[in-house]
Amino acid sequence: MSGSGTSGLLDPITVRGVTFRNRTVISPMQQYAGTPDGLPTDWHVRHLSTYAAGGAGLVFTEALGICPEGRLTWGDIGAWEDRQTAPLARLAEVIAAHGAVPGAQINHAGRKGSVQRPWHGFDPMSEADVAARGERPWPTVSASAIPANPGWPTPAAIDRDGIRRSLDQFAQATRRVREAGFQALNIHGAHGYLIHSFLSPLSNLREDEYGGSLENRMRYALEVADAARSEWPSDKPIFYRLSCVDDADGGWTLDETVTLARAFADHGVDVVDCSSGGLGRRTTTAVVRRVAGYQVPYAERVRRDTGLRTMAVGLIRDPQFADAVVREGRADFVAIGREALFNPHWPAQAAVALRGPDAFDDWPPAYGWWLKVRSRTLAVSEAAAE
Ligand SMILES: Cc1cc2nc3c(=O)[nH]c(=O)nc-3n(C[C@H](O)[C@H](O)[C@H](O)COP(=O)(O)O)c2cc1C
User: CA-based Rg of the chain, rounded to a whole angstrom?
Assistant: First the structure.
């Protein structure tokens, strides 16, 4: 494995045949800005291209639904039919045009689908949403017929045919993002969506070969990895996002994450993307105090115990901290989410913070040339003020 302890945030890394110019990743972030038939809009082009121009090594799209009912909201975009490929290719193109690796995340929302956009309440859709926005709820599926939260609609327990169909949908969505030109794939196995619902003993009460023992609960997650790998070239990496611990007692544990990650090695997965929580309403863990880098210990443990590469995410904002996470061998990639919403140039600014004004040479010259000159002017004026 490359990068253990000697490389930092700004150093390149190669996984399979793909080289990333640095270790900063833009975490997948849904924008709820797609068309009702799941196509991206100009907003997505602006959103993703800005992060690439801002210096990230890898920019992931938001979760792309593998089927219409695998979306969370009517604003989600997807990769469930071939006419979505060309608009997705535009997203890959604008990311690559600015030197970042274009990555795509694929997802089935399971029992957490059919909800309102966050700013409309994030609750299950109802007739009120039909009246307000013409947005109709749809029936959901999950590992077992257990609602995500008290009072939420009960999902249907997905049957064998449904499982087979969903695996084919994961494979076909992977084919489409491959054809669209994405270079890294992220399978969303976290935050309470369909894959996570199989992993956690709180949401999986199945009595067939997909439920009960850890081996059985892991089966669907590994089958999804196989389905995706069957359509994903051997020279391109697969990231797999996991909720490394559940946000409730009796749930999925870090030890189980380590066991699953060990199995990943034989199923074509290269990087474990270490998130947490979200089995129910909340999308990240509530049991761990949310301090800077609160999920880094998961990435560190998985990396140490499995030898797989990991990605750390969660309230990471300080460049020195992010650099130390990589240098100390706690993770190979560091992802930022909301900090990128606040400051899309965070990766390039982190480079200046860690390397000084010469790092402006790596910015797009239309910005970098001016900012480097300004940094000299500022240094002179600050020296004069002392
Ligand atoms: C607006 C928004 C949308 C998100 N959408 C997704 C998503 O599509 N897929 C996913 O895996 N995580 C999603 N997340 C979680 C982020 O990827 C990230 O893991 C989380 O925000 C923690 O990182 P941060 O503290 O740097 O924001 C989303 C987060 C935000 C703020």
Answer: 21
